[in-house]
Amino acid sequence: MTSVLEVPQGLSYVAAALVSTVILLAGQNITVSKYRKAAGIKYPQAYAELSQVEASVDALKFNCAQRAHQNTLENIPIIVLSTLVSAVKLPHIAAASCGLWVVSRVLYTRGYVTGKPEKRNAGGFGYLPTIVLLGTSLYAAGSLVLAGI
C-alpha cells in the first residue's frame, strides 16, 4: 500500500525557521569562543572554575555564555523535531513558533552573557513556542496515525 503525502504550502517558512536555529547555534558558538579567549580559559576545560570566576568577571561571562549555549543544545532536538512534525499539518504555526523560539534564545543569550544570569529571563517566553510546538506536533502525528499514513 502506498500513501501520498502532500507538501503543504508554507514549508519554505519552516525551512527558513529551521535554518535560523543553525545561525543561532553558530552565533552562540562564536560568543562562547570570544568569552573563552577573553577569560583565558584553555581547552579542554569546559567551564571556568570557581576560583577563576571569583578572580575575573570575564571568567563569569564565559561560564554564562557556555551555559546559554549548552541550554540551547539541550533544547534544540525538541524544537527541530516538533517543528518538522508540526509542519506536516500546520506549517505556518510551526515556522512562526520555531522563529519565535529562536528570538527568545537570542534574548536569553544576550541577557545571560552580561554576567548577571538573572538577565537571561528576557528570553523566558521561549517556553510558549515550545508548548505550541509540542501541542501541534501531537496533533499532526495523531492526524497522520488516524489517516493511516
UniProtKB/TrEMBL annotation:
UniProt keyword Glycoprotein present: no
Keyword Ligase part of the UniProt annotation: no
Main subcellular location: membrane
Localisation per UniProt entry: Membrane
GO cellular component terms, A-Z: endoplasmic reticulum; membrane; nuclear envelope
GO MF entry, a single one: glutathione transferase activity
Top-level division of the source organism's lineage: Eukaryota
Positions of transmembrane segments: 12-32, 124-147
Membrane disposition: Multi-pass membrane protein
Keywords from the named record: Membrane, Transmembrane, Transmembrane helix
Protein name: Membrane-associated proteins in eicosanoid and glutathione metabolism
Organism: Rhodocollybia butyracea
